[in-house]
Q: What sequence folds into this?
C-alpha cells in the first residue's frame, strides 16, 4: 500500500511526502469556501474562524447535518441502509429487509435517505449506497451509540 501511495505521488508530479500537506491545505481552502468544519476549528463562509473549542461546530450552518441525522434516526431507514451496504437492492428486497408493508412506507424512507445523500437510485428500481459517505455515516452512528451507552439507552434489537 505504501508503494501504491509513492507511485500516486510520482504520477501527480509531487513527492509523496508533500501530498498530505497539499491535501490538508486543499481541505482548509474548501472549508473556507463552503463554510464547513474540519477538526475542531469552524470556518465561516466569510473566512472567520472559531477557535479550537468544543462549540466550534455551532459556528456554521447545520441544516444539512440535521437532515443526515434525521435520515439515520429511524430503525426502518437504518435497516434500508444496511440492506444496500454490500450491493444494490431492488425495492422488493428493501421492503423485505426493513419489514415494511407498503410501497408508500418504503418510498417515504427512501426519499429521506436519498435526500440526505446516503443512498442513490440506480435505474428504475435499484438503490445503492454512496460508498464515499459510508465512513462518515459509521462515525455518526458510532458517536450516537457511545452517547446511548453512556446514558444506558442501549436496549432493543439491532437495525
A:
Amino acid at each position: 500500500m505504501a508503494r501504491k501511495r509513492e507511485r500516486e505521488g510520482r504520477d501527480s508530479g509531487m513527492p509523496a511526502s508533500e501530498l498530505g500537506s497539499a491535501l490538508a491545505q486543499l481541505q482548509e481552502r474548501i472549508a473556507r469556501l463552503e463554510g464547513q468544519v474540519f477538526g475542531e476549528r469552524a470556518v465561516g463562509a466569510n473566512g472567520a474562524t472559531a477557535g479550537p473549542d468544543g462549540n466550534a461546530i455551532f459556528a456554521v450552518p447545520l441544516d444539512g447535518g440535521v437532515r443526515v441525522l434525521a435520515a439515520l434516526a429511524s430503525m426502518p431507514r437504518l435497516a434500508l441502509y444496511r440492506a444496500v451496504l454490500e450491493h444494490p437492492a431492488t425495492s422488493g428486497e428493501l421492503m423485505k429487509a426493513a419489514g415494511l408493508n407498503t410501497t408508500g412506507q418504503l418510498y417515504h424512507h427512501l426519499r429521506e435517505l436519498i435526500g440526505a445523500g446516503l443512498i442513490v437510485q440506480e435505474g428504475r428500481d435499484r438503490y445503492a449506497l454512496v460508498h464515499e459517505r459510508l465512513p462518515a455515516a459509521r462515525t455518526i452512528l458510532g458517536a450516537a451509540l457511545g452517547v446511548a451507552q453512556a446514558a444506558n439507552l442501549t436496549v432493543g434489537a439491532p437495525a
Remarks:
- The CA atoms of residues 36 and 133 lie 16 Å apart.
- The longest helix spans residues 16-34.
- The chain has two domains: 2-59, 65-134.
